[in-house]
Amino acid sequence: MDFTSDCRARVAFEVLAHRWDSVVVFTIAAYGPLRPAALLTRIGGISPKALNDALRRLEYNGLVERRPFRETPPRVDYALTEAGGALLEPMRMMGAWATRYADAVIDAQERFGARST
């Protein structure tokens, strides 16, 4: 597989390149469609601005759907699209990789940092 600049496979890496995007996808997958306030509570540690930015990116990329309701007060929730749900298995595989190799990566980063100072 080729990952040159015009390769469509790069889309898979780019759509989850931001820190919170995969966390938002996993949270919606775990709990179903959620309102932004519920996402903030479930995720923890994410600012409202970072959540809003992540939701906009995920919607832009077709991974979540914004679902407004005609109620008073107005309400909106977010649900995974088919494409968003299909990303769960590859994301789980990346999580398994991280579980296995995160310590080695961190050790390499520390060795590199010590060498550079």
TrEMBL record:
<keyword id="KW-0238">DNA-binding</keyword>
<keyword id="KW-0805">Transcription regulation</keyword>
<dbReference type="Pfam" id="PF01638">
    <property type="entry name" value="HxlR"/>
</dbReference>
<feature type="domain" description="HTH hxlR-type">
    <location>
        <begin position="7"/>
        <end position="106"/>
    </location>
</feature>
<dbReference type="GO" id="GO:0003677">
    <property type="term" value="F:DNA binding"/>
</dbReference>
<keyword id="KW-0804">Transcription</keyword>
<protein>
    <submittedName>
        <fullName>HxlR family transcriptional regulator</fullName>
    </submittedName>
</protein>
<dbReference type="InterPro" id="IPR002577">
    <property type="entry name" value="HTH_HxlR"/>
</dbReference>
<dbReference type="InterPro" id="IPR036388">
    <property type="entry name" value="WH-like_DNA-bd_sf"/>
</dbReference>
<dbReference type="InterPro" id="IPR036390">
    <property type="entry name" value="WH_DNA-bd_sf"/>
</dbReference>
